[in-house]
Amino acid sequence: MSEGMELEFIKAYLEAACLEDLVALVLDMSKRPQLQISEHDRLNVEEVMANGDWWSADMLRLIAKSDIMHRMLLSVVFPSHVLAYEDWHSPPDRVDG
After folding, report:
1. Apex CA 64: angle with CA 62 and CA 68, to 5°?
2. How confident is the model at residue 44 (pLDDT cuts 50, 70, 90)?
3. Per residue in 70-97, pLDDT tens?
4. Residues 27 and 44 placed together within one structural domain of the fold
5. Those residues with Cβ within 8 angstroms of residue 66's Cβ, 6 or more apart along the chain or in another chain
């Protein structure tokens, strides 16, 4: 998240009259294109986590360190990042033959 977006979020948070307003704000922020994972990052999760120095790389590393409860909470705001990590991290379906 850029510094400008962080300040915008903090300002809106402080102005939120109630929890419902804050939840609506967070959900609105989660839909912004700047907060979605790029196609490149989605297809190259391992490389991005190992070598990336941008926001999505940091988010993927945070997701990797999170426990299941925190990962679930992260998925509310950053669903595309959590899904990309889980798709990469999940072993392929085994076909026993």
Report:
1. 100
2. very high
3. 999 889 888 999 999 999 998 666 555 4
4. no
5. 74
Q: Are 47 and 59 in contact (CB under 8 A)?
A: no
Query: What pTM value is reported for the model?
Result: 0.68
Domains held by the chain: number: 2
Is the sign of the CA dihedral 49, 84, 33, 1 positive or negative?
negative
Q: Are residues 6 and 51 in the same domain?
A: no
Per-residue pLDDT reduced to its tens digit, 47-67: 999 999 998 999 999 999 999
Residues in the chain: 97
77 and 44, same domain (yes or no)? yes
Closest of 12, 52, 62 to residue 32, by C-alpha: 12
Give the pLDDT confidence score for residue 71 in this predicted structure. Answer: 92
